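ligand=magnesium ion
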Amino acid sequence: MADALQNYIDGKWLDAADGGRFDVFDPSTGAVIATAPDSQPADVERAIDAARRTFDDGAWWPGTSERERGRILLRAADIVRREHERLSQMESLDSGKPIGEAREDISEVAFMFEYYGGWATKIHGDIPPVGPDAMSLVVKEPMGVAAAITPWNYPMMMAVQKVAPAIAAGCTLILKPAEQTPLTALEIPKILEEAGLPAGVLNVITGFGETAGAPLVASPKVDKVGFTGSKEIGKLIMRNGADTLKRVTLELGGKSPNIVFADADFDAAIEGSCNGIFWNQGEICSAGSRVLVQREIYDDALNAMVEHAKGVKLGAPGAEGTTMGPLVSKDQAERVERYIEIGSSEASMAVQGDRPTDPALAGGYFVPPTIFADVDNKARIAQEEIFGPVMSVIPFSTPEEALAMSNDNEYGLAAAVWTRDIKKAMNTARALRAGIVWINDTQTAPSETPWGGYKQSGIGRELGASGVEDYLEAKHIYVNLAE
Ligand code: ADP
Ligand code: MG
């Protein structure tokens, strides 16, 4: 019997008013593992009203001290650690990611609560000098009611990286997780309720983008939208939010270059380049999907990456030893397969791994790791985000050429540079138009550091100090002191 999940509104567990539900799938088998409320605009309105009332009545903010807000988040971190294995299993089951990767995600979720728990008592303004006859106080206040709209690739992390700073800042909020992966998002209110969060501060509703997401963006009662997802929906959110001049933080896609210079530590560069696109099935906005390799080592690097791809173990996400699970949904698997078809007409396929042979996984949404060689940077598989385990390998001769191709893309989320030459590494890093640049590393994203993109990869930065700043307004209070 599949679990019947419920919305969490004003501290109560509720079905959608019209009783509608949708199925949640195990992507490794296609089996239904739960059903969730198919929230409609009326349900969304109820959640918004709860968040609005809770913010406007003042008991939460400014009524609850910074110390108490901080303590709630610190307690939440401890609860996540206590529930670590259960949450990791749930995340792996729902999203299809290997259990080992899910465990790392949930550990970072615990740390995000801890990190922003520390921030709650350290948010403060400024007193700029304005002459002898006045005093100016710049105070930081919560933005008000925030909506968090999140994707399915890192379900709990993407939610908590919005929820935790919003609570530290004193906002109230409504979280709408991706319809593909609502399980761990609905654990967040349980954790925070146990940690002492008052009813109404965090409300969670499940449902689809047009019916449950769009009303959050359009509502005049919502002050801010924090969104992680596709570029197309990011643009729609900006347009739909314009009428109410919504504050938006958008973390969108990428087509991140991974540049391997001939003087790099070869083994580390190969391992990193492969992990950069095969980790989490390639369902990562910052995935190093374009691997640029200097010609001197091109053939050796390609061979080594092909060998690596052959060694990837596709299988049940919950099985120890699996290094790649299924994609999150049938739709996503079909989308990636379409790109593999496109790639086959644009470049040469160097390798495609095998599907799992276990008959229990026959209905799963598996797409094996795939590498295309000698890709032209203008090709669609080098320009468009695929969001799957598909690597495009592009040869280059000079650093200038690598840089020009790297920046020749509408995205600018992340980039990686592999070289032993520190000047080349730093000069390349500075010239890359990307929000995150890794040198001799890939995909590492400590929660203390800002995360977000240049160009069409988004607006604003989550995590780090900027993550909390994103939920604050500055109020200037001017005091006339003239006699
Ligand atoms: P993907 O295409 O990878 O599933 P999306 O950008 O479509 O990513 O989805 C990310 C999140 O945005 C999900 O929670 C989804 O339900 C939500 N969403 C989709 N369409 C809209 C919309 N029109 N307004 C608000 N949210 C939306
Ligand atoms: Mg699922």
